[in-house]
């Protein structure tokens, strides 16, 4: 029986997207309230290759990694890039209350369990870091190394800053949540009309954007946020994480610039790593410097 509380973007919305010709893969997740939710993911490269996990953020989807996947694949890695529930080719619950920080972590954990993923080299940006770092903290044995850019792990005990407050207000008040335009403005080099349309492709109308609208409000901004205790527990674990941990934040991201400092200071595995600033890059550094980041990720994996 079809779940009317969940939308599924028609497949024809994903035909002929610029630079995105990867075969879709799907896995059904079991949600106690919504039933089965279909999660989409890219799975490229040799099946037995060392696994690289790429996690996107808000309001993007796996299209964000189209320039990083080919060089990683050509280097012999198996590359996995899922779409979070509510994004990309994954199912989209229409009720904002269906989304929570812990719920996203749980969906991803179930996906990892179903694919029996271990020994992961992981790259995350934006919410790909907020979710991914929770997974690293809760299941450190599954990860071999971590590389992050333009992300954080807020507990609600810190001021998130005026630029973030403005972003949060815009995300809730604008009548049309212009996803392709948001990504375009979050880059230095800009996007073509076709690329902007590709970011809009998963969202035929506003009813498909509940997940994208929800994400900004799920970032812990107060000490009593529902996710705050789990965030503090994650930091307690990460402060003992000794596996290689590399940061690559952008020089022109007005919200996250400088966010690498806390990770370099508090995570043991960040010591003695060749941290770098991704130059001439905005918030969506994968758009501005995708091949460069892929090469640095390859170097990082081979060196550690």
| CATH architectural grouping | 3-Layer(aba) Sandwich
Q: CA-to-CA gap between the ends?
A: 49 Å
Order of helices and strands: EEEEHEEHEHEHHHHHEHH
- List the domain count as a whole number: 1
Mean pLDDT: 97
**Helix count, DSSP H or I runs of 4 or more residues:** 10
Structural class, from helix and strand content?
Answer: alpha/beta
Using the coordinates above, name the CATH class: Alpha Beta
Keywords:
7-stranded mixed β-sheet; two-stranded antiparallel ribbon; alpha/beta; single chain; 304 residues; Rossmann fold
Structure, explained:
By secondary structure, this protein is an alpha/beta fold. It is built from 10 helices and 9 strands. Helix 2 (101-114) packs across helix 3 (127-138) and helix 4 (162-173) packs antiparallel against helix 7 (210-218). It is globular, with a radius of gyration of 18 Å. The chain starts with 5 loop residues before the first strand and ends with a helix. The model has no long low-confidence stretch (mean pLDDT 97).
State the gist of this model.
By secondary structure, the chain is of the alpha/beta class. The protein has ten helices and nine strands.
Which helices and strands, and how do they pair?
Elements: E1 6-7, E2 24-31, E3 35-44, E4 51-55, H1 69-74, E5 78-82, E6 92-93, H2 101-114, E7 120-125, H3 127-138, E8 143-149, H4 162-173, H5 179-185, H6 193-200, H7 210-218, H8 228-238, E9 245-247, H9 260-266, H10 285-303
Parallel strand pairs: 4-5, 4-7, 7-8, 8-9
Antiparallel strand pairs: 1-6, 2-3, 3-5
């Amino acid at each position: 029986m079809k779940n009317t509380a969940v939308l599924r973007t028609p497949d024809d919305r994903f035909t002929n997207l610029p630079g995105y010709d990867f075969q879709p893969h799907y896995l059904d997740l079991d949600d106690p309230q919504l039933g089965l939710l279909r999660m989409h993911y890219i799975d490229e490269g040799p099946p037995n290759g060392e696994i690289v996990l790429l996690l996107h953020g808000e309001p993007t989807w796996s299209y964000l990694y189209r320039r990083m996947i080919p060089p990683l694949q050509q280097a012999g890695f198996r590359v996995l890039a899922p779409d979070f529930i509510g994004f990309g080719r994954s199912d989209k619950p229409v009720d904002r209350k269906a989304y929570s920080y812990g719920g996203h972590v749980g969906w991803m954990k179930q996906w990892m369990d179903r694919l029996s993923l271990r020994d992961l080299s992981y790259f995350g940006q934006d919410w790909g870091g907020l979710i991914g770092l929770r997974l690293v903290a809760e299941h450190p044995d599954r990860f071999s190394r971590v590389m992050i850019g333009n992300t954080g792990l807020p507990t609600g005990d810190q001021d998130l800053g005026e630029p973030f407050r403005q972003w949060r207000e815009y995300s809730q008040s604008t009548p049309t949540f212009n996803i392709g335009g948001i990504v375009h403005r979050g880059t230095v080099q800009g996007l073509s009309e076709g690329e902007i349309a590709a970011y809009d492709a998963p969202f035929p109308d506003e009813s498909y954007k509940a997940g994208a609208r929800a994400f900004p409000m799920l970032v812990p901004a107060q000490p009593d946020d529902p996710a705050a205790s789990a965030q503090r527990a994650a930091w307690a674990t990460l402060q003992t994480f000794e596996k290689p941990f590399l940061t690559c934040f952008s020089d022109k991201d007005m919200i996250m610039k400088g966010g690498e400092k806390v990770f370099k200071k508090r995570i043991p595995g960040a010591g003695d790593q060749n941290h770098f600033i991704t130059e001439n890059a905005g918030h969506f550094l994968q758009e501005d410097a995708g091949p460069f980041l892929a090469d640095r990720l390859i170097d990082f994996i081979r060196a550690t």
